[in-house]
Amino acid sequence: MTDAVRSSFTTGNSISHLRLCLHRLGFRKGALAHFFKQIGAFIHEWTPFLLVACYFIFSIAVYTFCGEGLIEVFWFIYLTTNFYIAGSTVLEAFLSLGPVRDARKAVQNVQTKNWTFPTPDDELLVVDLLIVAYLPNEQDIIMDRVNYALDEIKYPSNKIRVNLLYNTPNPIEPLESELRELATKKSHFRVIRVEDSKSKADNLNYYFTLNTGAEITCIFDADHYPHPYGCRWAVERFIQDKKADIVQGRCVIFNAKVSWLSSMIAVEFDKIYAVSHPGRAALMGFGLFTGSNGFWRTSLLKELKMDGSILTEDIDSSLRALSRGCKIVHDLNVVSYELAPTGIPAMWKQRLRWAQGWTQVSMRHFFLTWRKAGEGDTRGFAMRFGLVSLLLIREMSYYLVTQYCCLVASIIFTQFPKSPAKLARFVFFPYPVSEWFFIISIICLIATLVITFRVRSEFISKRSLAMFTVIYAPYLVFNATQGLYGHARQIVKYSKWNTTKRT
Q: Where is the Glycosyltransferase 2-like domain (predicted)?
């Protein structure tokens, strides 16, 4: 072999070896980058947990070093604010009795006329009913919900169109083909796959670009069963109240008997939708769109759209509507049935998303409580105070509730009780004023739950309500901890969307 050939051969091997080394090095760099990315994601995921854990540890430690006089001051502040929350809750409960009575009277009037409503069919408003779905998460239930909406909703078919708005990262067959085939058979059904969508807000915002001719648009999550007459009740409300811009209905949990947790959530939803929301509307003069079973005047909804950067884009859209002087009403006859999470992990993910979303909304819209109302805005003192309660006091309550628990824990650690009676005294009655606050708060709680019992849905048993009463105090602490977690996630700019599995 000549020197030239030998040199050429050696050079060729060197180049091949160099390429191989560079390839391996690139692979190692890629693997290393992927490793550090995973480490970063892990830290980002668990930092909120560490922040909340440090919050509790630090708070308990601080109280152990406080003198008795300072402890008394803190105790009085926490009990006073918690009493305010209990008092406002029971006041909303009492004021909800009026809307409940009116709703029942309206049903009785329609029943006596063999379900004949005041407005003739040919004078009803045109409705677009939107079912919004993330298909991989709801593929097992979506066909059932679509068929239900098409077959069971009592509304003239020439006045309503059922729209399925969905997104999916990958094709799901044969389901998608079956849905498209169903649309060819049902003239008032339309299937829209929103390409490049990553959220419910993206799906809705795409729909808002379409000119469908609908006067009213109602939005439902994919797990809902709207009551057959729900749309009719909502449209009747729009026709009777020309100033109404949004009608929010009552959401009822129908899988209450599946698990202990779902039964507790069902009671909670009855308390929220049948008591708190209509009571707040009566007391403060405003309602809220809560994301599903909500009916909008289409022109307003298309103008406002949904902000996908907010995890609770529904509440954000409500407050943007209120800032314009829009009227949001709650109608207890506009009923829809939905699924509750049946296990703690699913509930935890869902509630953390809500908690962080509420934090985002409160930060963005707190100006509504003090900024001068614009043209057409009718925010009076009651509404402004209600917004302070909703956007500020509610967020602060997470700290008030948990700080009370930390204070009790510090007293137990420093003066550990030797009997259950002494433990109860430390928790509830360390000072004479505690007795009055405790008794009044218990009365408020019982009154609120009694009213909830009167308006409970058909899926709630007396046993479930009794159990909810027993766990209500720790349940408040659990919710407050979730609120803190939501704040911590917002601090670290957590943005991962955790879906709730539908089955």
A: 219-409
Taking phi over 0 as left and psi of -120 to 50 as alpha, with beta for the rest, 496 belongs to beta
Where do we find the tokens 């004078």? 123
What does the pLDDT read at residue 429?
56
Question: Which has the closest alpha carbon to 383: 275, 280, 248, 244?
Answer: 280
**If you average pLDDT over residues 271-279, what whole number do you get?**
94
**Whole-number pLDDT of residue 4:** 46
Q: What are phi and psi of 247, to 5 degrees?
A: -120, 115
Sign of CA dihedral 469, 470, 475, 476: positive
For 240, the token pair is: 């009777």
Averaged pLDDT score across all residues of the chain: 87
Q: End-to-end alpha-carbon separation of the chain, Å?
A: 74
Distance CA 455, CA 450 (A): 9
Q: Which two tokens stand for residue 450?
A: 């009694």
What does 283-304 look like in DSSP terms, one character per residue? Answer: HHS-----SSSEEEEHHHHHHH
Q: Strand, coil or helix: what is 458? A: coil
pLDDT at 174: 95
Give the Cα separation of 146 and 376 in Å (integer): 39
Nearest partner of 348 among 496, 492, 201, 485, judged by Cα: 485
Tokens of 353: 């998303």
Q: Distance between CA atoms of 285 and 387, rounded to whole angstroms?
A: 10
CB 79 within 8 A of CB 437: yes
Residue 137: both structure tokens together: 């998460």
Residue 499 has pLDDT above 80, yes or no: no
330 Cβ neighbours under 8 A, 6+ residues apart: 99, 247, 248, 249, 250, 273, 277, 278, 281, 287
Sign of CA dihedral 112, 118, 122, 124: negative
Measured CA to CA, the distance from residue 30 to residue 23 in angstroms comes to 10
Report pTM. Answer: 0.87
Among the listed residues 240, 242, 224, the one whose alpha carbon sits nearest the alpha carbon of residue 232:
240
Band of residue 8 on the pLDDT scale cut at 50, 70, 90? very low
Whether the CA torsion 426, 403, 367, 313 is positive or negative: it is: negative
Amino acid at 268: E
